[in-house]
Design goal:
6-blade_b-propeller_TolB-like; 970 residues; 58 strands; Rossmann fold; alpha+beta; 33% strand; AB_hydrolase_fold; hydrolase; globular; Methylamine Dehydrogenase, Chain H; 14% helix; eight-stranded mixed beta sheet
């Protein structure tokens, strides 16, 4: 054991019992499609907390929606077909709505045949589970607070099945309004958009019919059934947006205009709604006396009312004009003038004799050239002065075309104001909506695109006038954690050069509010080439008096003027505790109200235990409610009761939902059972935390995930999986599946492998060497536990982890086999290549992000070569698989090719897998399956002594490739 290494184990003893998984079999890749699990992200509680619903089922197959009581064991199951469904409860918790789809096999067949798969809507009454269904439903919504109605929009189809829509074909469909109390229903035809207001009294909807017959915006009073046509026009109406209070809404209207390539938009504002009475305002999209010349209202965002209903906010964008058709008339300026010097325009067929005479005397006209017959070069011009590379401009072309300038329209004065512009591209409004802030990056854009070090000038924008006042010059954006207006809009919180500040937006006075606090607000865990990265802030308290700022451990309540500061945590630095996030319990609260109970997720940096801390209303110190070897979600409180929902999981226990009506979360009830597979398959026996010292002298940690059927005293083949810092997720469950990167921890644990995931701490200008300094001591410390078989250790990483894998095998022979997914291999050539997914160069990534280098290679040659796998390639003795796809938009494909060809030239054992057409990770399910299976076959050969697959041991001739792939088809 390395003398520097210190071993620390953190593992529940129950997980280590060898008899816990006796008789269970390992999970095979072929059984993944039948793996049953709960879709945790879609689970929903009812607003009163009495009901809970979730979807579960196999990875590939038909699913079930479970509706269960949160107070007892009552539950109901509904078969919903092969596609998961969103779950919606009515606000009064009396109904639940969800979709039923065709079976999984039918959906896949439809996808292959490019046919749509229609959905059925099912509505269930929670008091007695009486239900009703509607076929071919596109969308639905309950009527918000009144809960009397449900609106159901059906699928819209062309007039003939499979026929394309014509230009004048309507996009509307039938909208059914079903009264959940009386069971009566009303049908509205050709509806394209619809929204209930907050109370549910009003339904705003648009009609989009064939030939635009009857198109318009309509308002229905749901209490009387009376409908008003607020505006009719031969136009399209879209993007209805009610305000929060439900007493006003805005939307867009579009018409075709021959002058422009795309429809021209207007906006409509509706307010002061009283029964059939409402004020309707329209603002033209082509009023160049107000909107900037060449611009019109953007279709890429909706419109919204200000809180005081004086202003409508919307976006404007450039309009592309169509080419004007050339006239068949010939303009005669100097010829054909009469005695009054009037210009004549004549056609040859009706020209007068005198005009013909003058034409004859003129020089012969040049023959007309049809531009369509000309050949033009197909090229791009790259200029060193371009702020963005041409590749970036091309990749981001659609975004640039869709670029929207945030604007405002004052209804009373009919005045247009542009809030943003081409330099300040977006504006964040203050709560009072009379001001906002915007950032101008343009003075620094060129340099930022070179080295990734971004700066911006911060302006305060006046909403009424559009005037912009420079408040802060050249803020360093890389280190910032964002900006936040105070609730009264008088102050703006921001970070600069190691401290948090407040800006008085009225006086422009800046106040350093953390300079006198005996702690640092610089993130000690961030080791990129970024100066003084900020720690987390949770913004303002609801009273506007304080901000909540986290140092690396404790949480501080700091006054807006910086004169007072106190911790809400009790010396958490000594306990290595820290908050990770705050639960958003109250949906109407825009800031943290300390007069209400607040809950925070927490982490112990030393043990990696997670849990929940509670800050009681009006109190000044947090209480730790839960802290254990678990991963725990934030707490969700339902709207209409003090019922709390949250998720807990561990490294070998699938996530489960819990509910508690106790604010201290003591009396909890488990709502889900996500372990149906555990009775059959052997999974991980748990995890251990190892603490060791790197070769740089830093105390670090690694997580060792134990294999299924682990027996103390036995050693196991081990996969070392690397990226950066991974141990914070020590207690996170790994869902068995086909991953985009090939490696699935659960599958390897189930099949008798231990998995080691170490933390890596980086030194600038030494990313590869830092990985060596951290990973090798971690492997040695893991071997010293007796769990890891030192003769059978492999390594794998993808992307940045792939780079480090490719580099580590040039520096050590400790690994018996390696797999590098999409690896960077030559830092010098990679530095100036293109990150094709964005079109930008890699230079910024090298100098301010993962590369952790401080300059270009011309000033840092030794660092670039010292940390490039390609320059140490002769020292590679470890068999290697490279997975690199030909359309990789993150790490250029040539990086993998260069490393492969270099190793092949040296006659080193190497295979490169290329999945044609795939990007940085695998997206096609069949490719995910293939890569996952090949990777395990390879590791099984080297670490378990199984026979080598022929594609590794002998290779596959290109002429035989099709047959090889057919034999391995899924």
């Amino acid at each position: 054991m390395n003398k520097k290494s210190i071993l620390f184990f953190a593992c529940q003893l129950a997980w280590l019992l060898p008899h816990a998984q006796e008789g269970k079999k390992p999970l095979s890749w072929q059984e993944i499609p039948s793996w049953h699990y709960i879709r945790m992200n879609g689970a929903q509680p009812s607003a009163n907390g009495n009901w809970f619903a979730y979807v579960s089922g196999p990875s590939e197959g038909d699913l079930t929606l479970t509706l269960r009581s949160t107070t007892d064991t009552l539950n109901y199951n509904y078969k919903i077909g092969g596609q998961s469904s969103p779950i919606t409860f009515s606000n009064n918790s009396q109904y639940i709505g969800f979709y039923e789809s065709p079976g999984f096999k039918e959906i896949k067949a439809n996808e292959k045949a490019k046919r749509p798969s229609s959905k059925k809507l099912k509505i269930v009454a929670l008091k007695d589970t009486a239900s009703l269904s509607f076929d071919k439903v596109q969308s639905f919504t309950f009527s918000n607070d009144d809960n009397k109605w449900i609106a159901i929009r059906f699928d819209s189809t062309p007039s003939a099945p499979g026929a394309p829509r014509g230009e004048d074909s309507g996009r509307g469909a039938d909208l059914l309004l079903y009264n959940l109390q009386t069971k009566k229903s009303f049908n509205l035809g050709n509806v394209s958009d619809y929204k209930f207001n907050k109370s549910g009294q009003y339904l705003a909807y648009t009609v989009d019919a064939n030939g635009k017959n009857g198109n318009g915006i309509f308002l229905m009073d749901m209490t009387t059934g009376l409908t008003s046509a607020l505006q009719n026009d031969e136009a399209n109406f879209s993007k209805i947006n009610w305000n929060k209070e439900g007493n006003a809404f805005a939307l867009l209207k579009s018409k075709k205009d021959k002058k422009y390539k795309t429809p021209v938009y207007s906006l409509i504002g509706v307010k002061n709604i009283k029964g059939q009475q409402a004020e309707v305002f329209t603002y033209s999209g082509l009023d160049e006396n107000q909107i900037m010349a060449g611009y019109g209202i953007s279709q890429n965002t909706g419109a919204s009312w200000s809180k005081d209903l004086s202003t409508v906010f919307f976006g404007i964008a450039k309009l592309e004009k169509t080419e004007e058709p050339k006239s068949t008339e010939k303009k005669i300026d100097d010829l054909g003038k009469d005695s009054t010097n009037t210009k004549l325009a004549v056609k040859d067929s009706v020209a007068t004799d005198s005009v013909k005479t003058k034409l004859a005397k003129a020089a012969p006209a040049k023959p007309q050239i049809n531009k369509k017959d000309l050949e033009k070069p197909d090229m791009i011009i790259w200029n060193w002065q371009d702020k963005r590379l041409q590749s970036a401009q091309r990749t981001q072309l659609q975004r640039d075309k869709n670029f929207m300038i945030m604007s405002a329209w004052n209804v009373a004065s009919n005045k247009f104001v542009s809030l943003a512009d081409s330099a300040i591209k977006s504006v964040a409004l203050a709560p009072n909506q009379s001001i906002g802030y915007g950032l101008d990056f343009s003075p620094y854009e060129y340099e930022a695109n070179l080295d990734g070090q971004g700066y911006g000038d911060l302006y305060i924008v006046d909403v009424k006038t559009g005037s912009k006042k420079l408040a802060i010059k050249k803020l360093y954006m890389n280190a910032s954690r964002g900006f936040a207006f105070s609730p009264n809009s008088d102050f703006l919180l921001y970070y600069n050069d190691g401290n948090y500040y407040t800006l008085n937006v009225n006086t422009s006075q800046q106040k350093n509010i953390t300079e006198n606090i005996p702690s640092s607000f610089i993130d000690i865990y961030d080791d990129h080439n970024v100066s003084k990265v900020a720690t987390t802030n949770y913004g303002w308290t609801a009273d506007g008096k304080y901000v909540l700022l986290k140092d690396n451990f404790d949480l501080w309540k700091v006054s807006a003027d910086g004169k007072s500061a106190a911790t809400l945590t009790d010396d958490w630095k000594s306990k290595k505790l820290t908050t990770r996030g705050v639960s958003n319990l109250y949906e109407d609260d825009e800031n943290i109200d300390l007069k209400k109970d607040q809950y925070f997720t927490i982490l112990n940096q030393e043990t990696k235990q997670k849990g929940i801390a509670y800050l009681p209303a009006g109190h000044s110190k947090m209480q730790i409610l839960k802290l254990d070897d678990i991963n725990m979600s934030s707490v969700n409180k339902v709207k209409n009761s003090n019922t709390f929902f949250y998720i807990k999981e561990s490294s070998n226990q699938a996530p489960e939902y819990f509910v508690s009506q106790d604010k201290f979360l003591n009396n909890e009830n488990q709502l889900t059972k996500n372990r149906d597979n555990n009775d059959k398959y052997a999974l991980s026996a748990g995890s251990k935390l190892i603490t060791y010292v790197s070769d740089h002298g830093d105390t670090l940690q690694a997580t060792l995930y134990l294999p299924a059927n682990y027996v103390e005293g036995q050693s196991y083949p081990t996969i070392t999986y690397i990226y950066e810092r991974l141990t914070d997720d020590k207690n996170t469950y790994a869902q068995p599946g086909y991953p985009g990167g090939g490696f699935n921890r659960a599958m390897y644990n189930s099949n008798g492998y231990a998995v080691l995931m170490p933390d890596i701490k980086y030194k600038l200008n030494d990313p590869g060497m830092s990985a060596v300094a951290c990973v090798i001591p971690a492997v040695k410390a893991a071997i010293a536990t007796g769990i890891v078989d030192e003769k059978n250790v492999a390594i794998h990483g993808h992307s940045w982890g792939g780079y480090q894998t490719a580099f580590l095998i040039t520096q050590t022979n400790i690994f018996k086999a390696a797999v590098a997914g999409a690896p960077l291999t030559n830092m010098i050539s990679m530095y100036s290549l293109i990150y094709w997914n964005s079109g930008s160069s890699n230079q910024a990534i090298f100098e301010s992000s993962q590369g952790r280098l401080t300059s270009g290679y011309w000033d840092n040659w030794e660092a670039y070569t010292r940390n490039s796998p390609i320059f140490h390639i002769k020292k590679v003795n470890t068999p290697l698989i490279i997975m690199h796809n030909d359309k990789d938009g993150a790490v250029d494909y040539t990086q993998g090719v260069e490393y492969y060809n270099g190793l092949r030239r040296l006659n080193k054992p190497v295979v490169m897998l290329t999945y044609n057409g795939e990007n940085h990770g695998l997206a096609k399910e069949v490719n995910k399956k293939d890569y996952a299976v090949r990777m395990m076959e390879y590791f099984d050969h080297y670490l378990k002594g199984k026979e080598a697959p022929t594609w590794w041991s002998k290779g596959v001739d290109y002429m035989d490739l099709e047959k090889h792939l057919e034999e391995r088809a899924f």
